[in-house]
Amino acid sequence: MNKKGNRYDEQFKKDIVRLIEEENRSVSSVVKDFGVSEQAVRNWLKASKERQDPDKSEVAELRAQLKAKDKEIADQAITIDILKKATAIFVQNNRK
Questions:
Q1: Strand, helix or coil for residue 15
Q2: Which residue among 16, 30, 46, 95 is least enclosed by CB atoms within 10 Å?
Q3: Which helix (H) or strand (E) holds 86?
């Protein structure tokens, strides 16, 4: 049984976030009034706050770049080890 969640357009999400942030409505009242899951609303609030704070979004972007570079370095280290071992095997075969 494949259960698909409801898909909401960006304007609807913005309106829900605006109700909570600007009109001081509680999350639970908005959830009851609009039939949206509480977790979805909390995710929208979190995403909205991250978009509003450029420092946090920049930090998240830099962390993602750092993680990608670390993975690339680890892959290169493995490649170097393999090449060293292959070179050692070829040197041994040439001495015979």
A1: helix
A2: 95
A3: helix 54-95
